Amino acid sequence: MTASTALSAHFGRVAALSNAIGILQWDNDVMMPKGAAGTRAESMAQLQVLRHGMMTDRRIGDWLAAAADEAGLGPWERANLRETRRIWTVETALPADLVEASSKAISACEMRWRQARADADFKGLLPELAEVLKLQREIGRAKGEKLGLSPYDALLNDYEPGGRSDRIDALFEDLAGFLPGFTEEVIAIQARRPAPPELDGPFPVEQQRQLGLKMMAVLGYDFERGRLDVSTHPFCGGADNDVRITTRYDEADFTRALMGVLHETGHALYEQGRPQAFMNQPVGQARGMSIHESQSLLMEMQACRSREFIQFAAPVMREAFGGTGPAWEADSLLRRYTKVSRGFIRVDADEVTYPAHVILRYRLEKALIADQLPLADLPAAWNDQMRELVGVVPPDDRLGCLQDVHWPSGGWGYFPTYTLGAMTAAQIFDAACRADPEILPAIGRGDFSPLVGWLRAHVHSQGSLHQTDELLTRATGRPLDASVFKAHLRRRYGQAA
């Protein structure tokens, strides 16, 4: 056995364990009874320690050194060595006891967050969240020392390999200067037009579920390799070839759950389209979270809020709920789905205000990791940023700093990838439509195969063969360019819209 094949076999076993962890995490968030929380936390901690031990196996360094000199390796095999080294370098920065402590703290904090969110009780979450934050700082410092990065950039690197906060700062400052004024302009434009008629509910959950399943099939989701469920916070998870998504329902408004399903289906299509030949190898994994978020936001925002899609979907929606009258016409539904307003909840935000929600969280998590903001002051700092960036102040912490599960679940450094993903989505969709002018007309017929086929070829099937900037440049002809995103917003929502 050569060194490269030994590495492949070893990381195949790592992938098998990671898949088991993924299914247990899905069960934790969707089906697990509350009384099992303690036992599950211990199981997850031990599995994470076992996985960490496999990822830091001393043989990996020797295999990497020997494999570097092997002849006959193709581009995928060479890229697999690069990605393996990157992952191994990060994992070896952490001692096993820190991995175990972090896993246990996250399990406890996630369970406490569910109740704290329901009760709008940030103080009740504070002890558990403080422990998660303390351990994330330790993880950031340990990884940063190994990689030569600041603690925050070391955490960011887990979600956005090669991503750096100085580049994000520049991109976000540009957007933060553009969005408030543009939001004012769009709201004024929309105020001069008739408001869309109200949709009369209620909208029973089972009918919403059936509509969601139908639209998942339209987009190309493979139900032989996944399923749809309900969770407190919508997500895409599971395992290789078992890609599960969730949403949450409101019987007074079906539109939010449906767009949530379409968003998570975008993630799932990426996962289901990864290269089967390298599915269990580092090179076969998705290329960072900005690309992942681009795939969900491309489906939800770029494709499924387009005039073409709404014209296709309007009669399907009417049939699902027995709707009649002007509110169910395509033009009314389009105005509803492209309505811009200042709201409290990120996952329900429109395309224009959404980036402001993300910039807020990015600023706050950077300050918290750097110990420049006391955790107890988070609700007040959150409200100040909401006032500055979005123009509203939440009435309680349930609608404020408790709304997302990311920080309780240890996802520090994740948030900027949402807006990086929105900009990337605009750029990829623009390139796809220029390359194949039939994409939008086909969406108008309920045919997503031209779009998904293009994404399969240029994004999904590429896994981590290329680093992020190279992948985007190969797909679109240039690295990330915020001007494409801003031009898209102006076309859809500006004076000429």
From TrEMBL:
Location of the active site: 264 (proton donor/acceptor)
Keyword vocabulary terms for this entry: Carboxypeptidase, Hydrolase, Metal-binding, Metalloprotease, Protease, Zinc
Record GO terms (molecular function): metal ion binding; metallocarboxypeptidase activity
Required cofactor names: Zn(2+)
Top-tier EC class: hydrolase
EC number: 3.4.17.19
GO biological process, one term: proteolysis
Annotated positions binding Zn(2+): 263, 267, 293
Domain of life: Bacteria
InterPro entries linked: Peptidase_M32_Taq
Segments passing through the bilayer: none
Free-text cofactor note: Binds 1 zinc ion per subunit.
Catalytic reaction annotation: Release of a C-terminal amino acid with broad specificity, except for -Pro
SUPFAM superfamilies xrefs: Metalloproteases ('zincins'), catalytic domain
Record CDD domains: M32_Taq (cd06460)
Function: Broad specificity carboxypetidase that releases amino acids sequentially from the C-terminus, including neutral, aromatic, polar and basic residues.
Family stated for the protein in its record: Belongs to the peptidase M32 family.
Protein name per the record: Metal-dependent carboxypeptidase
Organism encoding this protein: Phreatobacter stygius
